[in-house]
Amino acid sequence: MLITNDNKLGGYVVGFCPNGQILLTCSNYEIKLWDIKKKLCLQTFSAYDEIVNDWDLGYQSLCLSPDGKILAIGSEECIILWDLKKNTLLRTFSGDGYIWFVDNMTFSPDGRILATISDDQTIMLWDIETRKHLYTFDKTKLTIQIDFSPCSKVFLFLHVCKRSDTIVELFDIETKQFLQNFKGEGESIYSAEFGENKNTLFLET
Asked: pLDDT tens across 160-205, in order?
């Protein structure tokens, strides 16, 4: 799930959880989880007071883990992982200073890896449990989509290459090697999606 905002520095951020039943909103650093059917606020919290002394914050994006237990908050200088059950700060990722305005994020289906895109189009992979930075991809001209395969072993990103053509690249997370890339054969690729079969990839042109 990718959630982005229009107004930075604590502006309004909104998006849905993967099951489509919960809405997340953020305004002025206050984050709320809503039950869409019942139209009730399930939880309200702010991570701002916990780490404001350490980071210059401005919430940019929100992303909920597949099991609904962890909320990732992308900010100007770090990534915040929030334990929703305990309502406490779980950990932060700083990237040794390489994080800058995290605009988009997504968890792998098994919840073990978080992929992030910064404002400068830097894509990074993070290990949730060990807190380790796994990989940084070369900056792209414009990243349109990031996603994981159902088995969480292959990372996909759709981006615009130098000649304004769109290309889908597949990356093996375990070996840290690129597997394949797909071009639009004269047409632009607008989206890519893994099929239930791990060897199937659907491209929308």
From this structure: 876 668 899 999 999 999 999 998 777 889 899 898 876 788 888 8
Question: Which DSSP symbol is given to 29?
Answer: T
What does pTM read for this prediction? 0.81
Strand ranges (E), 46-141:
61-64, 70-74, 79-83, 88-93, 102-107, 113-118, 123-127, 133-137
Return the CA Rg of the chain.
Answer: 17
Q: Is the separation of the CB atoms in 31 and 45 below 8 Å?
A: yes
Q: What is the DSSP letter of 11?
A: -
- pLDDT greater than 50 at residue 130: yes
* Cα(153)–Cα(2) distance, integer angstroms: 19
On the CB side of 174, how many CA atoms lie within 13 Å of its CA? 5
Q: Are 181 and 169 in contact (CB under 8 A)?
A: yes
Distance from the Cα of residue 52 to its chain's centroid: 22
DSSP type of residue 195: -
45: which 2 tokens?
Answer: 């919290």
Residue 97 main-chain phi, psi, to 5 deg:
90, 0
